[in-house]
Amino acid sequence: MYTSSRFGNTVVQCIRYRHWSDTSRAKEGMTECERQKDIMLPSYPPFDAKSEEVAVRWSKWVSRLTNNLFVAYDITDESRKKALLLTYVGNDLNDIVESLPDSETQPGADESPFEKLVSALNRHFNPKVKKEIQRYAFRHLHQTTGLIEDFHTSLRQMAPSCEFTNPGEEIKSQLITGCRSRKVREKGLNNPNMTVNDFLQFARTCELTQRHSKQVEKEISSVQKLTQHRSRPQSGAWKTPAANRKSQPTLEKNLKLCNNCGRQWPHEGGQKNCPAFNKFCNSCGKANHFATVCKSKNMQSKQQRQSPQQGKTKQRVHNINEDSSSEDDYVFMTSIIGKDMPIFEVLINERKTKVLADSGAGVNILPEKIYNDLPSKPQLQVCNNKIYPFSSSQPITVLGKFQATIEHKSISEPATFEVVKTSETPIIDWKTSVELQLLQKVNKVESDDIQSDFPEIFQGLGKLKDHKVKLHIDHTVQPVAHRYRRIPFHMCKQLEKHIDKEIELGVIKKATGATPWVSPLVIVPKPKNPDELRVCVDMRAPNTAIRRERHNMPTLDELSTLLAGASYFSKLDLNQGYNQIELDEESRYITTFATHMGLYRFKRLNFGVNSAAEMFQEAIRQSLNGLNGVVNFSADK
């Protein structure tokens, strides 16, 4: 039955639930008061089964009911849980339960009534969807609106239905792909070892900075507008034109302004005393008015005009307005032309000129001398850009800019050149270089995926066939058996995992028999992935007894000569290259090392052996001998 009580101004409705003891105790003569126990349960919001995203809301609703209310009131009986669930869910969900088959809702002999009902409702609200469809939807999820946290939550909710092998990595990849900020995306792409938490922290910081920046810009804009209305006109400039005076308060209601000069009308002495009388407009060129009150729509005339009264010419200059800006450009200026520099011969307004194609330049640069030699020298326009040479804080002098036609082979493109007072080589910026096909834009290097065609080759570590290396050991050197170097306890599990992996790959095995040589381990966490260890064997003592082999190592100049003229390249990178070469059985005893799990020795050539580099290089050279266009080179990453 239901009851309610009032605490202050709040009415709390509760459900009084009678808990009956088992039948056997009732038969022993206990009274009704002794057999029942009154429990006051709070009200719980019913479940809305008709709104959207019902599957997600159902999972949250039943989880909170189970983990909060049932735990708080110590409700453990499964039948009571089922009864309370049906009591709280509401009429809509009860209708759904009644429509389900009895085989889905009625528990078996060993089944929980509550869990059976919850499982049936889970299947009802979460119908089985093919994981490929879910993955497709997951891949196309992007951060259109909201914060990065909301996007991350959506990905986490969708990931279980996709059945990913590594959901954490998939969520991180989609966060990078689908995030709205280009800066955040580039951060994730340039830092592959960044964790999800680090990525989210960086994204939150960027979003917060962006919000604060917009707020500051908004406040500055408001201050600028206020200052513009209150500021006094500068010396030599007219007051605000009549067209803009409508928004400003006036001291006199019936104040009239002159249509020619913009000042108060009428003028003392008549129209001839107007400051604009016999003056020429700098905008349209007509007489008897100023540009501030010019009604002409032709505001683009930039020609030089002559004033009859002053007897001298006036040159039109760049008009500074709200949209005008002075940009800083950085270019690489060079006066030395080397053989490896990208120098091309082009036509600039039909004049042959050697130019440098610079992918780092933001503008096209032409020295003054070459500009003066152009057959049809165009007129210079005023340029407000500041151009800085590479690694210099002093801008170079810019005389102006002009539009020209630049040609290379059969390609012709319009380009803007800025004329400077230098004697260096002309520079073509990145945009123009790409348009003329002087430089090629490479976004990525594509490679064919052959792993799916030959999966057996890419499994495990691999081993060079029919090849073993033998260590030349000086038996006159006294063997040294180092004792085990103890490591921090928290690294033991990681080391055990590493040892098991190496045994599975066939790199090491358990040491048996006599062990005259025993080397210690040097273990450090990997800087970019602290959960993994870099395990090295200290081979300094055994190396005193190992005689080195001497083989020639090719230089980069030799490789460049062999590859001269090649257009297409393929690279095969050997992972754990030394460990892919088998070690002779008689040489393995000297590689024994100690761990907290016992002694182990290498079955493959190991890192740390003083002659490993030469032996590995020679083994690969022999394998590739006779193949045209194939070279090998060792590089320690």
From TrEMBL:
It comes from the Eukaryota. Residues 300-312 have a biased composition (Low complexity). Residues 222-248, 298-323 are annotated as: Disordered. Pfam families: RVT_1. InterPro entries: DNA/RNA_pol_sf, Peptidase_aspartic_dom_sf, Retrovirus_Pol_polyprotein, Rev_trsase/Diguanyl_cyclase, RT_dom. Residues 526-629 form the Reverse transcriptase domain. This is Reverse transcriptase domain-containing protein. It comes from Elysia crispata (lettuce slug).
